[in-house]
Write a structure and sequence with these properties.
By secondary structure, the protein is α/β, with parallel strands linked by helices. The chain has helices at about 1-15, 70-75, 120-130, 150-155, 160-175, 190-200, 205-210, 255-265, 325-335, 355-375, and strands spanning about 60-65, 85-90, 105-110, 135, 180-190, 220, 240-245, 270-275, 290-295, 300-305, 310, 315, 345-350.
C-alpha cells in the first residue's frame, strides 16, 4: 500500500498538478512498475538527424542535443556526466517572405499531460500572428514516451530538471538561426512547464547550460504551482509574467506572493495576473469542473543551495546518491512524498474557461509586445 501511495503522491510533486490527473488510483491498474530500488523507464532513443546549427530554411520538426540529468543535484554538481539525450521541437515562423530582419522567438513548454492542440499549438499561432517565431518543445517522445504510456509513466520519465535542460538547449539552438534575434528569445510554459519556466530564471542554471549565450529575454509562467523553489537567490535580471486563477487550489496565491517577492527583491521584473474565478488549464477543451485531484497544501518543496538535495519545509528528504541511474532516481523521487503525507490536499477546478483564456492571452500579448517587440527593453 505504501508503494502505491508514494507513486500517487509523486504525481503531486513532479507535475505541479497539471492536465491529466483526475483519478490517481486508476493509474496503477496493470502498470506493472517494478519496486525494488528502480523504476523501469523507457530507453532514451537515438536520432540520426540531430543538429546544433540552423539555416535560414530550417523550420518544422527539429531534433537537437540535450541531456537528462533527472535531478537538480546532478545539474548543479555533475552535469558533465548527465546522460545525453535528444531534444525535439516544432519551429513555426510567420510568413517568411515578409521577413526583412531577424525576429524574436518564444520557446513553449507543454504541461505534464503532453502537447495539446488547443494550448501549445494555439499559442504558437498567436505568437506568429504577433510576428514572433514559436518553437513548441516535446520533452516526452525524445525520452521514449508513447501514446500507450500512462500519465504516471510519462511524469516518471521526465523531471522538471530535464525540461529546463531542454529549454536551454533550445535557446542555444534558436540563437543560431539566421532569422531569429538571439537576444530576444523568450520561454513560456503551462503547469509543469510553467514551473520549469520560473526555475529557468536561476543564474546558476544559465551559467551551466548556456554560459556564452544571451539569457532568455522573457519568462511567461501559466498556472505553474509555487510550492517548489530552487533554494537560491541568484536570478537573471529579466522579465517574468505569472498568470493564474484564484480558484485553482493547486496554485497557492500566498506562496506565489512569497516566491514572486523573492524574485523581485533580487533583480527580476515581476508582473502578475490573478484571474478571478479561474481554475487550472483553462485552455483545455475538457469542460470546467471540480475534480478530486491531489495538490500540495501548506508545504514547500525545495533544494539545498549547494548540492541540490531535495527538501520539504527546508528539511532534507530521501534522495539518490551521486552516480545513481535515472531509474534509481525515479524510484527515490517516488519515495519523497512518503515523508510528508500531511502536505496533500484534494480538489481543484480544471478545464475550459473562455473568459480566463481571453484575459490570459490579452495580458501575454501586452507583456511580449513590450518585452520582445519594443525597440529596447526596460530591463
Amino acid at each position: 500500500m505504501l508503494k502505491k501511495i508514494a507513486l500517487g503522491l509523486l504525481l503531486v510533486l513532479i507535475s505541479g498538478i497539471g492536465y491529466g490527473i483526475y483519478y490517481v488510483e486508476k493509474e496503477f491498474a496493470g502498470i506493472g512498475l517494478p519496486w525494488n530500488d528502480t523504476v523501469d523507464l523507457p530507453t532514451l532513443p537515438t536520432f540520426s538527424n540531430v543538429t546544433t546549427q540552423l539555416s535560414a530554411d530550417d523550420e518544422g520538426e527539429i531534433f537537437f542535443p540535450s541531456h537528462s540529468p533527472y535531478d537538480f543535484s546532478v545539474l548543479l554538481t555533475d552535469f558533465d556526466n548527465a546522460p545525453p539525450s535528444t531534444g525535439k521541437g516544432t519551429l513555426f515562423f510567420p510568413d517568411k517572405t515578409t521577413l526583412t530582419a531577424p525576429i524574436p522567438a518564444m520557446i513553449i513548454l507543454h504541461g505534464s499531460g503532453g502537447l495539446r492542440p488547443e494550448r501549445e499549438f494555439a499559442y504558437a499561432r498567436l505568437f506568429n500572428e504577433m510576428g514572433i517565431a514559436a518553437f513548441v518543445l516535446d520533452y516526452y517522445s525524445p525520452r521514449g514516451v508513447t501514446e500507450q504510456h500512462s500519465y504516471l509513466q510519462k511524469t516518471l520519465t521526465t523531471s522538471e530538471t530535464d525540461i529546463i535542460v531542454d529549454a536551454y538547449a533550445a535557446l542555444r539552438l534558436l540563437g543560431s538561426h539566421p532569422l531569429i534575434d538571439a537576444t530576444k528569445i523568450g520561454v513560456t510554459g503551462y503547469s509543469y512547464g510553467g514551473m520549469a519556466t520560473r526555475y529557468a530564471l536561476d543564474s546558476r542554471i544559465k551559467r551551466i547550460l548556456a554560459p556564452d549565450h544571451p539569457p532568455f529575454a522573457a519568462h511567461a509562467d501559466f498556472y505553474g504551482p509555487c510550492h517548489q523553489t530552487l533554494g537560491d537567490t541568484q536570478f537573471e535580471r529579466t522579465r517574468y509574467l505569472a498568470v493564474f486563477g484564484d480558484s485553482d487550489n493547486s496554485v497557492d496565491p500566498a506562496q506565489c506572493a512569497i516566491v514572486h517577492q523573492t524574485l523581485a527583491d533580487h533583480g527580476v521584473q515581476v508582473e502578475t495576473l490573478m484571474i478571478a474565478n479561474a481554475g487550472h488549464a483553462w485552455e483545455n477543451e475538457q469542460p470546467r469542473a471540480l475534480n478530486n485531484s491531489p495538490y500540495i497544501n501548506g508545504c514547500t518543496m525545495g533544494f539545498a543551495k549547494d548540492d541540490g538535495t531535495p527538501l520539504i519545509n527546508e528539511q532534507p528528504v530521501s534522495h539518490a546518491a551521486p552516480g545513481a541511474s535515472r531509474e534509481h532516481r525515479a524510484y527515490m523521487r517516488a519515495r519523497i512524498m512518503m515523508d510528508a503525507p500531511e502536505c496533500i490536499g484534494r480538489g481543484y477546478i480544471i478545464g475550459q474557461d473562455r473568459n480566463a483564456d481571453k484575459m490570459a492571452k490579452t495580458r501575454l500579448v501586452e507583456f511580449l509586445t513590450d518585452a520582445l517587440l519594443a525597440p529596447s527593453s526596460s530591463i
